[in-house]
Write a structure and sequence with these properties.
Pfam families: DUF5916. About 5% of the residues lie in helices and about 50% in strands. The chain is mostly beta strands.
Length: about 750
């Protein structure tokens, strides 16, 4: 008995000893010479390097070492930072969905290097490679906490090689010091590594990380200790010129309008200091970006489509995190995209722009962006200038205070220009003196506070903002406060917000601004996880949420209360059930089916209904998997059956096929209308090589009476240099008659000066 107890204690002590806790040191030594990226690791630099080993699981459990271990090593010379991984494995086929750069992390066997070169546990970079060598890189913000903390839209030059063996695969990375910003006088960096073994659904990390947190969070990172001097950060200038052109045809006008276009411009990246970068763009062109995924929006609120333009996505966390969901002072899609008088989005050409971003020192960050758009008389718009600036002060280990200023200026507008600049954002309703006054500026000043405990369990976020313009002088503020606690079993949060009647963030996103004449409310969510001793079930547990919205007079106008239960399986499948009760008192006349032909629900009317929902995500390890959502219940004075989801098929790593669908069967009383609404979106993604890609996307939406075809070919002929050909066409669904179409090309070339 004593012998067994001794063995047990010895085993437990060895396990505890093997755990790498936050702050664990990893030394990095300089070597002289070159490393050949060949997946062999026979250079002396690798043999002498400190080893980051003893990796622990984060998923499906966080209490055991990974059954297939990983080793990471680091070294450097004057030009490159080198990282190598030995990922022990067997001959089980890898899960690798694509050869495309910026692959989806969640569905690929891959390994990651995450580091914070400012040693502030808030900001940094990550570099990933899959088991067949596809690359992915980006920036880390907010300490790696939250879905938006890892931004994959930062691109730069780096090199890698992956070689597969019977019992392992080895990856070597060479990252030029010129490719990222860092402080030469900082002797330690935050560093961690993680690995997703997707074929076994095991996620592991060098530093043991509780499973409720991302493995890339800096709260659970080690310290990279430089034994020698870090190469001095040097200035770097990169120029990325482009040339683009296309042929366009609009068949919705008579006679048909045909045109061609040829234009050029450039982006530039200039290192102002070792940790501060200036990005410039002149006559930017975004014709190569993927089209938005269409939606069936049956709500009263504007849908927030994601930003896809590269210039706005890089280093965007400082601006995008200002405010909260109830009111965001800045939303980059307000620049260069505007709704015309009929509500249809239109492109407004951008003439030039600049963004200065980076860290001033280990406690201060700065971001400033200025963009200038052209005059568009056909849309009733003058030339406009946009500025957003944020300064952030970090304190403690993962907390910060930020101030953000947003400014929009309409240039050259006078009181006599109401017919020339007729867009609703420029001239509003007449004043009491029956004069139309132009709204030539809109400004928002915002303050944000973020508090986070060292172990990430406690989190607080609050903001207070005020808007300024020509029209409104009172009731122009907005704010919120949010508190959250999370551990491996319990998640609980509570938030409150208010938006004054005249708070006007024209360059922001305030979803209730066109629905409520001012609003205030609260929201809360509670979820509890139960971990059974079960070979297939990871956890299950109840969840509940409530969201109330009131008018400034205290009148309740919106309430949604839901309770549910979730089952999360070890094979990555997920099943959720929800029961919801909805109450609405309408603040304006509205019909979700057809605002013109159908009878409207009237302002002041009250509606209550209940719904039941189920959602199932199948095992994503399988080459064919699916997501299926279904909701049935009341909808105002009628009913609605919704079935939506997506079917995915992988012919890895070369072909991915997806079918997105959304079906609504609306049946409203009397002459309020009824409709069957369909949205279908098949998508084909082909990676011929790691440099040649094709994407074809078709979308049918009978709510907007439109079919859209978008086909894009990309050739990455040199690192960070691309050639694109894009074809897009819109059709009438009834007879497949073309509405409009375009064929464009774009060539970019990255030059280091």
């Amino acid at each position: 008995m004593k012998y067994c107890l001794h063995l047990t204690l010895l085993f437990l002590s060895s396990i505890i000893y093997a755990q790498n806790l936050p702050g664990t040191k990893l030394k990095i030594k300089k070597f002289h010479g070159d490393i050949v990226l060949d997946g062999v690791l026979d250079e002396n630099a690798w043999k002498e390097a400190d080893v980051a080993d003893d990796w622990y699981q984060n998923f499906p459990v966080d209490s055991l070492p990974s059954p297939f271990q990983t080793e990471a090593r680091m070294t450097y010379n004057d030009e490159f930072l080198y990282v190598s991984f030995v990922c022990y494995d067997d001959d089980t086929p890898d899960v690798v969905s694509t050869l495309r750069r910026d692959f989806s992390y969640a569905i690929n066997d891959n390994v990651s290097f995450i580091f914070g070169p400012y040693n502030d546990r808030l900001n940094g970079y990550f570099f990933n490679v899959t088991a067949i060598g596809a690359q992915r890189e980006g920036t880390v913000s907010s300490g790696g906490n939250g879905e938006n903390a890892f931004n994959i839209y930062w691109d730069n030059k780096w090199y890698s090689k992956v070689v597969r063996y019977e019992d392992k695969w080895i990856a070597e990375l060479a990252i030029p010091f010129k490719s990222f910003k860092y402080k030469s006088d900082v002797k330690e960096w935050n560093v961690t590594f993680d690995r997703l073994d997707k074929k076994r659904n095991i996620k592991s990390a060098w530093v043991r990380t509780p499973r409720q947190f991302y493995t890339g969070t800096f709260a659970y990172a080690g310290q990279l200790v430089w034994e020698g001097p870090i190469p001095k950060a040097s200035s770097n200038i990169s120029l990325i010129p482009y040339i683009s052109g296309g042929a366009f045809e609009d068949r919705e006008v008579d006679p048909t309008d045909s045109s061609t276009e040829l234009q050029t411009g450039f982006d530039a990246k200039v290192s102002i200091s070792p940790s501060m970068n200036l990005d410039l763009t002149v006559n930017p062109d975004f014709s190569q970006i993927e089209v938005d995924e269409q939606i069936l929006n049956l709500s009263r609120f504007e849908f927030r489509f994601p930003e896809r333009r590269q210039f706005f996505l890089e280093n965007s966390d400082l601006f995008d995190n200002a405010g909260f969901d109830s009111a965001r002072p800045f939303f980059s899609r307000r620049i260069g995209i505007i709704q015309d008088s009929t509500g249809i989005p239109q492109k407004v050409p951008i003439m030039y722009g600049a963004r200065l971003s980076g860290t001033i020192n280990e406690k201060w960050r700065l971001g400033v962006m200025n963009m200038h758009t052209k005059k568009m008389l056909e849309l009733g718009l003058p030339a406009q200038n946009y500025t957003v600036a944020t300064v952030q002060r970090m304190f403690h280990e993962q907390s910060s205070f930020s101030m953000t200023f947003v400014n929009k200026e309409s240039l050259g507008v006078t009181e006599s220009d109401s017919l020339k600049y007729y867009h609703p954002s420029i001239f509003g309703r007449p004043t009491l003196e029956d004069r139309l006054r132009p709204n030539t500026y809109n400004r928002v000043l915002d303050a944000d506070l973020v508090l986070r405990s060292k172990d990430n369990r406690w989190y607080h976020s609050s903001f207070l903002a005020q808007s300024f313009d020509n029209r409104n002088k009172a009731k122009t503020m907005s704010g919120s406060a949010f508190f959250q606690y999370s551990d491996r079993s319990l998640l609980a949060n509570l938030g409150a917000f208010f938006v004054d009647k005249n708070f006007n963030a024209e360059v922001g996103y305030v979803p209730g601004s066109m629905v409520y004449p001012g609003q205030m409310g609260y929201y809360s969510e509670v979820a509890y996880k139960i971990y059974p001793e079960n070979n297939s079930l990871l956890y299950s547990g109840p969840q509940a949420r409530i969201n109330d919205t009131y008018l400034p007079n205290g009148n309740l106008v919106d309430r949604e209360f839901a309770i549910g239960y979730v089952f999360d399986f070890k094979n990555s499948a997920n099943l959720t059930f929800d029961l919801a009760h909805i109450f609405q008192q309408l603040t304006f006349d509205f019909n979700p089916v057809n605002n013109v032909k159908s009878r409207k629900f009237l302002e002041g009317e009250e509606y209550r209904w209940n719904t039941i929902s189920a959602s199932y995500q199948s095992n994503t390890v399988k080459k064919m998997n699916f997501l299926l959502n279904s909701t049935y219940g009341g909808f105002y004075n009628g009913t609605n059956l919704n079935i939506s989801g997506q079917l995915d098929m992988r012919f890895q790593p070369y072909v991915n096929i997806a079918m997105r669908f959304d079906y609504n069967n609306l049946k409203l009383d009397e002459d309020y209308g009824e409709a069957e609404l369909f949205l279908l979106g098949p998508k084909l993604d082909v990676t011929f090589t790691d440099k040649l890609f094709f994407t074809g996307y078709y979308q049918y939406n009978n709510l907007t009476d439109n079919m859209n075809l978008n086909a894009r070919f990309q050739w990455r002929y040199k690192p960070a240099s691309d050639f694109y050909i894009v074809y897009t066409e819109n059709y009438f669904p009834s007879n497949f008659t073309s509405k409009n179409r375009a064929l464009v090309f774009k060539l970019t070339y990255w030059i280091n000066l």
